[in-house]
Design goal:
- Helices cover 26% and strands 21% of the residues.
- The protein has helices spanning 4-18, 39-46, 94-98, 148-151, 162-169, 176-181, 191-200, 214-234, and strands at residues 23-28, 51-57, 60-65, 70-74, 79-83, 114-120, 127-131, 137-141, 155-156, 186-187, 274-278, 281-285.
- The strands form 4 sheets. A 4-stranded antiparallel beta sheet has the order 1-6-7-5, with helices on one face.
- Strand 2 and strand 3 form a beta hairpin.
- Helix 1 packs parallel to helix 8 (214-234).
- The longest helix is centred in the last third of the chain and has 21 residues, at 214-234.
- It is globular, with a radius of gyration of 20 Å.
- The two termini are 27 Å apart.
- It binds a DNA duplex (16 and 16 nucleotides) through residues 1-3, 6, 32-34, 59, 74-78, 93-94, 113, 131-137, 149, 172-174, 178, 181, 183, 190-193, 237, 239-242, 259-260, 279-282.
Length: 291
DNA sequence: ATTCCAACCTGATAGC
DNA sequence: TGCTATCAGGTTGGAA
């Protein structure tokens, strides 16, 4: 779920819990696909270091350490980065939820999905990263070192313009939806916001990119920026796993027009929202409003 | 060069 | 109740 608005919300709320604090201990789960950098190296590079800055690049978080090394985190599909003070049922498995008494206070305890546990030298809250499906990624870059994952990224989706899209879509045989999801074209757009932006701009997701007019490219760029900014304002979308670092749900799931609304009525025209596969991804659109 | 597709991993849910 | 099949918001690498 974490797309640009969720990652940006996470960045804003977790930055005060990282920047200016020195790590005393980093606990991890066992090495796996999840860790691009082996855990021993991670611990060696991070313990004793102070976080100097936290930036976002597309859906990646990049934390700079005092040493000049950079800790790169991708939340994948189910990644959660949060404070030990966070309290949310989204941080628990369904079985754990079911055994909760009504109104019982949720106290988070690290479980087998909690892959990172930062403990700091001061007495403030710990920071956790949890990721059930392990599609997330963690890597540590030496000072000045780059990585193909970051090098490949296109411009940030918040800075998209009609001209950028128009240039990127020419001679592309693929669908406009697939193009929006391509992180080397635009960094930060995922399945939810691609569908929402295409709805806002009245363009069908399956349309061939090269056939989109300049005017439509402007509409799509405007739609993207509007949807992404509004979602950031509301704290992102909490549809299945996403919670803010404080344990709060986002608000944008209540403002969705198409994503996950197949079979329901279009807010604008009353026609039924459809769902079909485009670019091998579940895609939602209004057959009347979008053409 | 571009597009497609399986793979990575786990859990929730629907259907039998 | 239990089993199986299907589906999930992402990205990669290699095949087509």
């Amino acid at each position: 779920m974490p797309e640009l608005p969720e990652v940006e919300t996470t960045r804003r709320l977790i930055a005060p819990l990282l920047v200016g604090r020195r790590v005393r201990e980093l606990r991890t789960t066992r090495d796996s696909y999840f860790f691009v950098t082996p855990t021993r190296e991670l611990r060696r590079g991070i313990e004793g270091e102070e976080f100097a800055a936290l930036e976002r690049r597309g859906k990646y978080l990049v934390a700079t350490l005092g040493s000049g090394s950079r800790l790169v985190i991708h939340l994948g599909m189910t990644g959660q980065l949060f404070s030990s003070r966070a309290s949310s049922v989204r941080l628990l498995s369904a079985t754990a939820r079911a055994s909760l008494a009504p109104e019982e206070q949720v106290v988070f305890e690290p479980d087998l999905h909690t892959h990172l546990h930062f403990i700091f030298e001061d007495a403030g809250p710990d920071v956790y990263m949890r990721d059930v499906r392990k599609f997330g990624k963690v890597l540590l870059l030496a000072p000045g070192q780059t990585h193909p994952r970051l090098a490949r990224l296109g411009g940030d989706a918040l800075g998209v313009t009609g001209e950028i899209l128009f240039a990127a879509t020419r001679k592309r045989k693929t669908s406009i939806k697939a193009l929006l999801l391509d992180q080397s074209v635009l960094a930060g757009v995922g399945n939810i916001y691609a569908d929402e932006a295409l709805y806002q701009s009245a363009v069908r997701p399956a349309r061939r990119a090269a056939r989109i007019t300049r005017k439509e490219c402007v509409a799509i760029a405007d739609g993207l920026r509007r949807v992404l900014l509004r979602s950031i304002e509301t704290g992102g979308s909490s549809i299945s796993d996403y919670v803010s670092p404080d344990g709060e749900d986002g608000g944008y799931q209540d403002e969705r027009r198409v994503y996950g609304r197949a079979g329901e009525d279009c807010i604008e025209c009353g026609d039924v929202i459809r769902r079909k596969l485009v670019a091998q991804r579940s895609t939602h659109y209004c057959p009347t409003c979008q053409s």
